[in-house]
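Why this split exists: single-chain examples teach little about how molecules sit against one another. For that reason, every record in the complexes split bundles all components of an assembly together and asks for one structure covering all of them. Below is a record exactly as it appears in the raw files.
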Amino acid sequence: MKEKFSFKKQYRARTIFNIFNFLFFTLVLVAVLIPLIKVFVDSLDASGSYGIRLWPQNPSFSAYKIIFSTTALYQPFLISLYVTALGTFLGLFMCTIGAYVLIQFEMPGRTLFSYLLLFTMIFSGGLVPTYLVMKDLHLLNTLWAIVLPASLNVYNLILMRNFFEAIPGSLFESAEIDGCTPFGIFTRIVLPLSKPALASIGLFFAVAFWNEYTNFTIYISNPKLFNFQVKLRSLILDDQSLAAASSEGIYAKTVQNAAIIVAVLPFMFIYPFCQKYFVTGITMGAVKE
Amino acid sequence: MANINSTVTMKKKPLGGKSDLRTRIWKYRYFYIMFLPVLVALILFYYLPMVGIRFAFYKYTPFAPPTFVGMANFKRLWSTPSFWTAFRNTLEISLVNLFLSMIISIVVALLINEIGHLRLKKTVQTIIYLPHFLSWVVVASIFMIVLSPQGGFVNQVLLSLGIIKEPIYFLAEEKWWRPVYFFISRWKETGWGTIIYLATLTSISPELYEAASIDGAGRFKQTLYITIPSIMNTVIIVLILNLAKVLNLFESVFVLYNPLVYHVSDVIQTYVYRLALNANAPDYGFSTAVGLFKSVVSCMLVLFSNWASKKVRGRGIL
């Protein structure tokens, strides 16, 4: 009798907790989504009569049309795509070859190589010396200054190495006996077996290169080479570059809102399909550093 | 480098006896060639800048060749109040953010873990991970618009509810800047921060909970006596890992601060940036010295974290 009563009490406590939990997450989701929704809604409102509505009045895509018909606005978008594609490719190239060399445990100098890589995680030259090296290499105001240094990402390289380490060594041995060259083993065994890691780490690189901003502000001063993040930042900070929009009767802030949406659009397209790879990537890193 | 050179000289030699060094190097010759791009990038972009650290001891501007001045830059650094403001701000902002991120992420992870409905749980996770992938520029842009005193959403809501009389310029008032910064950081990173705790939570053996409920422990007591002790190890690891990054604060502050709030928001990296690149008279020598100070303190923090990590879980972070 007594036991039954306590079960009932527990069940009631559980229900109350569930209701509380449901309310809590409703609130969390509202807090996460409202800023994004508000920006999206206002980007559709050409007249700029925003208020506190969360739905558009007379929705129109005119601000988006402005962005994709003004050279100064769509060129940065193309630069972003270019940097992301090139950077992700080079990043994966560096990661995979580096990781493949680091799993050759018998190789003389392997330990030295891994210490050289690890040391960069402890100590760095810092912003100014790196800038001066870029200047001496004549990389200032070229997109190589963005792509090349970031393509060697030691953290991602070590994630990749951990993944390669898990490939059974017997596979390498039998391939070697069958006359496979080291490069053949790399392209025919290691890479095909590492598709999930390539997807996760590739996505990490892609997001990082798409979102790149700091290095552009340091190394790039030629407006023709700005990526979309830099352009978005200047749109938000000074409305002068929005003269074209206001001449067509579109509220400058609407173009700012639309530019934010354009900056996240490519990511929003892939996110629902790739979310699992992002999560695999971080748990892979968390579990075995 | 030495290894690569010896591969070249070894080319014509016949394969020697057992596992002598030359044979091993010859055996791995293709791997040295493969590693070359990584090594070149490593030297150019990571090790050459370290050579440039010598400029911390030079007087160096774009307009004159560097001249050696010994410790003068460091003496100047020691007596510059704006440097110490930046140093203090870096520590305060980072540490508060670290503390907040742990508490909030753990609580949210525990509550996500209690969501029974699987689809609902997945949806919540998908949405709260999302802001992590937005760039700091995008996040700053969103909040600069939403928090704007001229028709920004938050000010309009507060005005129409009668909570405030005058719009608040959240990002340009000293007393508001830090709370707003912490809110925005948490908005962006809380979801992502829960992943590691959720991974730990799923690894707790269900038998522990069964045993506890047989012993009469309710959900709350189970959380208190099983869940929390089980994630304690992860909590410490996350704390240690993040401690190493305390001084690396840059982009998030850089896109959210402005000259009106330098006093509470300027951090070491933004200070170096302004000194070196954004001034009318860039001072490479002094800014390198500030950067070196930061690198050395950071290095000590990483080594301490590594040592602490070895103590706690028998494995370093490096």
